[in-house]
Structures are given as C-alpha cells and as structure tokens.
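Hi all, long-time lurker, first post. I run a small reading group and we've been trying to get comfortable going from sequence to structure in the token notation. Rather than ask abstract questions, I figured I'd post a concrete chain and ask someone more experienced to write out its structure so we can walk through it together at our next meeting. Sequence below, copied exactly:
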Amino acid sequence: MAEQTSSAVIRAGSPPERETAGPGRAGAGRTEAGRAEKPDSAVVRDALGVGIAVGLSGFAFGVTSAGSGLSVLQTCALSLLVFTGASQFALVGAIAAGGNPLTAAAGAFFLGVRNAFYGLRLSQLLALPRVVRPFAAHWVIDETAAVSLAQPTRRSARIGFTVTGLTLYVLWNLTTLLGALGAEAIGDTDAWGLDAAGPAVFLALLAPMLRTSTERAVAGVAVLLGLGLLPVLPAGVPVLAAALAAPAVLYVEGRRAARSATGENPRPDTQQADGRQGEDR
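-- Answer (accepted) --
Happy to help. Here is the structure in token form:
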C-alpha cells in the first residue's frame, strides 16, 4: 500500500516451520527455526496497527485523485480494483502533471510489478488452498507481505496476512471515498503529512529486520539506487532498479569471501608441486 519499499527488500528468512516439541527438538513454544511462538492476539494487534495506520493515507489519495481531475467513481474504482497505493499515487500524479494517460498507466504498472515477487514468496509461506489464492492475490502488497514474513509460524503468517489485508482494504477504500468527497475541505494533503504515513509504517517494519551488515548494505545500496535514478527514469522503474542492490552486494561479499579463503591457504597448487618435487629427489 502507500508503499511504499521486499524485498523492498524485507528479510524474509526461512518459511515458518511447523511447531515441534520433545527431547532434542526446539521444544514447546518454539519453532524448528528456533523462533519463539507469537500469540494470536499479538499478531492481530500488530496487523491492525499496520492496517489502520496505512489505511488512513487513503484520505491523501482520494484528495490527490480528485484534485487531478478524476471523478469520485473513478477514484474509488482505482482503490477497489488496483489496491496498491504507490501505483495509484503514481498514476494520478502523472495525470495531474499533464502526462499522457498511457504513460501514467505504464509507470504505475512498473511500480506494481514488485507485488508479483511478493506473491512468489507468500505462495510458499502461506500455502493457501487453490480456491482462495485468486482472492488472496489481490491483497499481496507491501504491508501484508511485511506482516506475514515477520511471523514465526505459518498459522501466525496467515492470521497476519488476513487481518492486515482485510483491515487495510476496507479502511483504504473508505478513506479514499471520504477524501474524494471532501477534497476541498481537507485542503493540502502535504500539510497533513498523510502521504507519508504508509512509507513510515513500512520502514518501521523493515528496519528491525536488517540485522546483519549484508542486509544493511543491501538496504543502503537500494536507497541510493532508487533515489539516484528517480529524476532520470519513469515512475516505477527506479523501484525495480533498486532490486539490483541484492545481487550486487552478494557478488561483492562473495568475492571478499573468496579472497579471504585464498589468503588462509595461499597458493595450494604450488605447495603440492613442491611436495612432488621433494618426492622426486
């Protein structure tokens, strides 16, 4: 949703494992991965917090969309059918700036592509029944992915996904309608800071998961790529380009590890050759 970051990238970790107990196992109250179980009430509380905080930024979208010339019906249709806040803001922002509708739609499309990558991860994580998957796919966005991936078990991940998606979908569409109807009364959304609510919540979810130097390096390079390319590339493309931070950092880390390993056992072939020469003597 007003997004507006997996992987930004979120540290997904391993899929939540089944709960285990018994001698030699993780023990009751913990998962096989060693992560403590989380009460359902805590998952619901966190999911509601994210859904409410980000859902309120629908006011900003409703006002922005109405101010760009879209009707109330068109504005509400975008939230109901598209339901990915950053893409919606990119679309109405480009239209408000006088851009071609097709170009604006293309930029919004590129920005929404990241949700497909979230879907690949969440399909394994949630393992939902086939009948439910087409409906759940509509809720695959930054916030639902963040809440789901933060959970220690599949059960809590499903609860987090469902509560976040439902809360956010209902509140986002409601506030979109209210914002579109009351655009003149609300005034300048920048003064309210509503457009920053979604990204702020997403960063708050992401920051605690950057636990290693590699993860922090990936996040830092992604920020530099996204902000650096923003002035020169169409809307949505810098977000996709920022994904190159992960392979770039991993490549550098791999080269560094290879050099370190070589330094621990320098020129092994030469040592073996010297040994063979000694035997020949």
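A couple of things your group might point at:
The longest helix spans residues 154-181.
Residues 144 and 161 are 5 Å apart (CA to CA).
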